[in-house]
Protein: C-type lectin domain-containing protein
Organism: Caenorhabditis nigoni
Amino acid sequence: MILLLIFPLIFFTEGSALCPKDFLLFKRTPTAKNNFTKEYCVGFIPFFDMNFREDARSVCAFMESSLALPENQQELDAIKRLKGNYSIAVDGEYSTHCKARLYREEFGRPPYYNFEKGECNPKNDLFVFDDPNTDPTFFKNSFPAWVGVPRRGYNAIHIGDSEVKLYRAPSCVMMEADGWFAIEHCTRNPRNDEKDTLHEYLGVLCGVHPRYPK
Ligand SMILES: *[C@@H]1O[C@H](CO)[C@@H](O)[C@H](O)[C@H]1NC(C)=O
Ligand SMILES: *[C@@H]1O[C@H](CO)[C@@H](O)[C@H](O)[C@H]1NC(C)=O
């Protein structure tokens, strides 16, 4: 009797989940790490200059959504098909705490920053995320235990006889044309107000809960 009552309910609910236009609906395993999300809409929004994190964040916000990531391989494969060969902005950015550590401890060293241990290991808390409805474990596991920080640099400011180095390092997660994750600059270089990225990011990945119209 209970089964008979429950089954039609589940089918009705699942059948009626509605995503915004051009978003894909994914079923997810609800856990504490994804805000117990059972179904989620993830969409690729084409937009120019998504190199800049605040702009990418704004485009998702305009769609009443947030920056997002795939939660598993199946979602990654579907998102790769959806975005085609575009390089796009996705959720995830170094925590301010780890940026501070990078600037303080690592800038004088060889060109690969080694996040071996502790908080700033990519598997731990190097990254912070906008989206509470996606478990970032799959993303974190796709990173090696170390992340090279090529193309870091500084703008030198001369004050009297001394030089102050104003550091810049890539710190935002992007998805490249081939579907791999990369860390990129995501603010304008204050020296010339230009973007500092290797590629043009021409879209953004956004996520939102489906609607369930009655
Ligand atoms: C958690 O999920 C519920 C819907 O299941 C949603 O209403 C709520 O906004 C989510 N929490 C956050 C912080 O996004
Ligand atoms: C992406 O695909 C389009 C059309 O399929 C092509 O014109 C363009 O050159 C490709 N871009 C890259 C970076 O491969």
Summary: The domain at 19-208 is CATH 3.10.100.10 (Mannose-Binding Protein A; Chain A). Residues 85, 177 surround 2-acetamido-2-deoxy-beta-D-glucopyranose (ligand 2) (CB under 6 Å). The first strand starts at residue 23 and ends at 27. Confidence is low (pLDDT under 50) at residues 1-14.
